Amino acid sequence: MVKVYIPLDMAAVAMGADRLAAAVAQEAAARGETVEIVRNGSRGMLWLEPLIEVETPAGRVGYGPAKVKDVASLFDAGFLTGGAHLLNIGIVDEHPWMKKQNRVTFVRCGVIDPLSVAEYEAHEGFKGLTRAFEIGPAAVVEEVTKSGLRGRGGAGFPTGIKWKTVADCPPGQKYVVVNADEGDSGTFADRMIMEGDPLSLIEGMLICGYAVGASKGYVYLRSEYPIVAKVFQAAIEKALEAGWLGKNIKGSGFDFDVELRIGAGAYVCGEETSLLESLEGKRGIVRAKPPLPAHVGLFGKPTVINNVLSMATIPMIMEKGAKHYADLGVGRSRGTMPLQIAGNVKYGGLFETDFGIPLGVVVNEIGGGSRSGRPVRAVQVGGPLGAYVPVSLFDLPIDYEAFAAKDSLIGHGGLVVFDDTVDMSWMARFGMEFCAIESCGKCTPCRLGSTRGVETIDKIRNGMDVDANIALLKDLCHTMKFGSLCALGGFAPYPVESALRHFPEDFRKPALEAAE
Amino acid sequence: MSGAAQYSDERAREIIAAHMGLEGPAMPILHALQKEFGYVPDAAVKEMAEALNISRAEMHGVVTFYHDFHRAPHGRHTLKICRAESCQSMGAERQARAFLDKLKLDWGGTTPDGALSVEPVYCLGLCAHSPSALYDGEPIGRVDAEMLDEIAAEARD
Ligand SMILES: Cc1cc2nc3c(=O)[nH]c(=O)nc-3n(C[C@H](O)[C@H](O)[C@H](O)COP(=O)(O)O)c2cc1C
Ligand code: SF4
Ligand code: FES
């Protein structure tokens, strides 16, 4: 029987993967061929989705992007034995886009059947947890600290320190919470790992729970990800059946349960304290810190809250050792970053690489430049609260500190590419509008400042008292930056200020046009 | 969405009771109520407040905080169109505006026949295939004007 892989990944499904899988099954039956269709995660070459892979003695041969209308010709071309076809991309592991990566967090994503515990184990799964059980909780925390792993959710806070704070709290009820809210535009890595390798997240949570003394974990998932919800819930059940969740896991004496919760379309619920409020069943309003969630978290108990990628990277760190991970990267940015290449770009997808790669290389060489074929003008890095980076800064390496030095951020690693048709004053306006829509309303600089920001940019765009209004806008940004309680209001100025700084001409268009 | 059940206090109480064993049950209950009735009726909010032993005002505050929960019946079908940055980089905003104008709707509006509600969404995680949309929970990548028109026509049937 031939194994055929067709992703269940939401992006692949959005491009027709479900219909394709049905068509392949039907055509195979009609031709009397026996195939086993595995619904895997995506390999990250999203421009090739849906990508069919066929297992052959030489390796997995890929065909993509495949449409239902291609199915008959694929069979005619003998694709079940890796036959030649216009869509044939060769052995997937040998593809240049794959070869240039260093897959650590995503090593199994797209490779294995996401819901097979046996395959997960065959690909080194649960080795990290097994090692954790061997070395004990304190040594696990030490190992995570030494790896240099920093939170991939945006702020880049050292994960080991966070875990140690919770581990040091007196024994009793503690929680592990995974932030799967992934609201940033241009990001989809959390979604992909949860669809393609959900057991790695469960294993990371288990290691965390064991290290800090928690027996319960929650995953807070955004409602925009319906396929993740299905896959992840199924993964929880598979792990339970296999004895990797529940009571006395694999005879270790350690108990741990995981529960999936769904958000309800509020961006601010990605902010950790707002997320906890929402989990508790309240309005998702940001809590003032201190106390830190590590001390007073979910239901008032000590809580580790980590992003999906941070947590899903833990098993590899535990398996291979802290040094192996820490040896990758540059400066204080250790390890790898799953970059998400999106927007107006030719080869959009997920590209995992060591920190330190220049931004321009990612956009132009890996991403292939703009999809429209026009010159690239700006890249927004780090989501809707991230800065717009101009082409003149394309030498910037992917490194938290290097970006910070240019008033920019890496955030969750999302890159949104824009060509030269972009109107940067409009994007600045949108940034403020988004902040106004999503503000939790707790503090004035964010709640009112964002609305005033929209009004002021509208005036500038209409050519009204441009200089005075630009000065006012800068002042408003300053107030929001330093007066807001959380990073929604505090970082909303980044896209606006960077647009003003790097693309000032876009704020003077109406005046220029009027003068013509 | 089509197939929503008629509201009854009794059914709401059943749904609420089924979740009371959870820690922090409010969000799961709200999702379950909306799934059953297509929206979260005021009467259900009252039942929830009683069951959770909080004031109705407080419960109301929770429901209204979240973009996903509707306070009134919605269109039989829902189209969520992404208007976040990545989709904008591929012309989503202009495309959506033209579509809404054609239907004579604003964001969040429902066609007069109750067939289709069109809502904005801020990123679906499909940004490598911008512009994107979600139709009754089904993801769609590289959306163009023709696809939007087809959806509007299909919703009417
Ligand atoms: C408005 C706002 C939205 C956020 N959204 C997310 C999110 O969707 N996912 C995430 O992991 N972190 C998000 N964060 C960061 C979290 O507050 C928190 O720093 C993170 O979950 C901690 O996990 P980490 O240390 O593993 O990064 C957001 C922060 C702010 C201010
Ligand atoms: S900055 Fe905005 S989102 Fe954050 S606490 Fe203040 S009002 Fe809420
Ligand atoms: S910005 Fe539209 S799908 Fe991400």
TrEMBL record, chain A:
Looking up SUPFAM superfamilies in the UniProt record yields: Nqo1 FMN-binding domain-like, Nqo1 middle domain-like, Nqo1C-terminal domain-like
Q: Which GO terms describe its molecular function?
A: 4 iron, 4 sulfur cluster binding; FMN binding; metal ion binding; NADH dehydrogenase (ubiquinone) activity
Which UniProt keywords are present, listed alphabetically?
A: 4Fe-4S, Iron, Iron-sulfur, Metal-binding
Q: Which residues form a coiled coil?
A: none
**Which cofactor is essential here?**
[4Fe-4S] cluster; FMN
Where does the NADH-ubiquinone oxidoreductase 51kDa subunit iron-sulphur binding domain lie?
425-470
Keyword 4Fe-4S listed: yes
UniProt similarity note: Belongs to the complex I 51 kDa subunit family.
Purpose: NDH-1 shuttles electrons from NADH, via FMN and iron-sulfur (Fe-S) centers, to quinones in the respiratory chain. The immediate electron acceptor for the enzyme in this species is believed to be ubiquinone. Couples the redox reaction to proton translocation (for every two electrons transferred, four hydrogen ions are translocated across the cytoplasmic membrane), and thus conserves the redox energy in a proton gradient.
Protein name, as recorded: NADH-quinone oxidoreductase subunit NuoF
Automatic annotation (TrEMBL), chain B:
Cofactor(s), names only, from the UniProt record: [2Fe-2S] cluster
Q: Which GO terms describe its molecular function?
A: 2 iron, 2 sulfur cluster binding; metal ion binding; oxidoreductase activity
- Keyword vocabulary terms for this entry: 2Fe-2S, Iron, Iron-sulfur, Metal-binding
TM spans, by residue?
none
Family matches, as Gene3D superfamilies:
Glutaredoxin, NADH-quinone oxidoreductase subunit E
Q: Which family does it belong to?
A: Belongs to the complex I 24 kDa subunit family.
What is this protein's name? Formate dehydrogenase subunit gamma
Organism lineage reads as: Bacteria, Pseudomonadati, Pseudomonadota, Alphaproteobacteria, Hyphomicrobiales
